[in-house]
Amino acid sequence: MYANWQKYLSYLVCLRLEKRKSAYNPYLEVLLCKGDLMLNTRQATYSHHAAYVSFEKPLAHLFQQRKNFAPQTVLVAGLGLGSVPKMLYEKFSLQKSHFFCVEIDPEIIALCKKYLPQNIQEKCSFWQGDMAQFVAENQRPQFDLIAFDIFEEDKIPDVFTETIFLTELFNLLNPRGVLIFSTLHYNDTVKKTSEKVLLAAKKLWQNELELLTTSGNTILIVTKN
To answer: What is the pLDDT of residues 47-85, one digit of tens each?
Structure first.
């Protein structure tokens, strides 16, 4: 994956381990920064293992609120380098969970399989394709936790902001299951898309919806009663 000397050097300067392109992302680069892996496009960070606070904060909040919550089946929408499965496995001790990962870009799946530790990969299934198609074709409760983190650069694709998609996504949750949906709010452009999601979510889940903010994200947390 990378040598020890590269890890030590990365605390002084970020190292580019490789770059790729695909039909979905004209530029992808894997960086090693301060001993940790990052996946970047030209405009956005798709994955940053140790510093992925957009999910670490809501997950910590969730597990603090529900002490006995132990999701067995987890849907990861938007893969990156596998930051969410890695975090859940290592930081939140979900070694018995299974992670079903949906990602449209085969190059990102290939990078994840290259850099994600093997013991975590053994707990993962990978499905390459469109998330909207996956949701529409799998309309039955089957997941205890859904982590939604899909962006094109720094924008949520329009299809994922629509009420019908949000409703169908929520339908995949088992009773007492939880949806965590990441949106961005760090500038006016990305806020427009995020506000569309928030408006739809408030109409759908007014009594169940909880919002958390990080430095650049607004996170929706919804529990299925």
So the answer is: 887 667 788 999 999 999 999 999 999 999 999 999 999
**Higher-pLDDT residue of 140, 47:** 140
Q: Rounded to an integer, what distance in angstroms lies between the CA atom of residue 198 and that of residue 210?
A: 11
Contact 52, 77 (CB under 8 A): no
Run of H or E residues at 84: helix 83-90
**Is beta strand 217-223 parallel, antiparallel or unpaired with respect to 173-184?**
antiparallel
Element spanning 20, H or E: strand 15-20
DSSP for 34-53?
TTEEEEE-SS-EEEESTT-H
Residues 6+ apart with CB under 8 A from 204: 163, 166, 167, 170
> CA distances (Å), 220 to each of 7, 125, 178, 198, 209, in order?
35, 25, 10, 8, 7
pLDDT tier for residue 34 given thresholds of 50, 70 and 90:
very high
pLDDT in tens, 107-139: 999 999 999 999 999 999 999 999 999 999 999
Q: Identify whether the C-beta of residue 150 lies closer than 8 Å to the C-beta of residue 78.
A: yes
Asked if 76 and 100 touch (Cβ cutoff 8 Å), the reply is yes
**Is it the case that residue 155 has pLDDT exceeding 70?**
yes
Tokens for 69?
Answer: 């919550």
Write the secondary structure of 94-130 as one string of H (helix), E (strand) and C (coil): CCCCEEEEEECCHHHHHHHHHHCCHHHHCCEEEEECC
Query: Helix, strand or coil for residue 1?
Result: coil
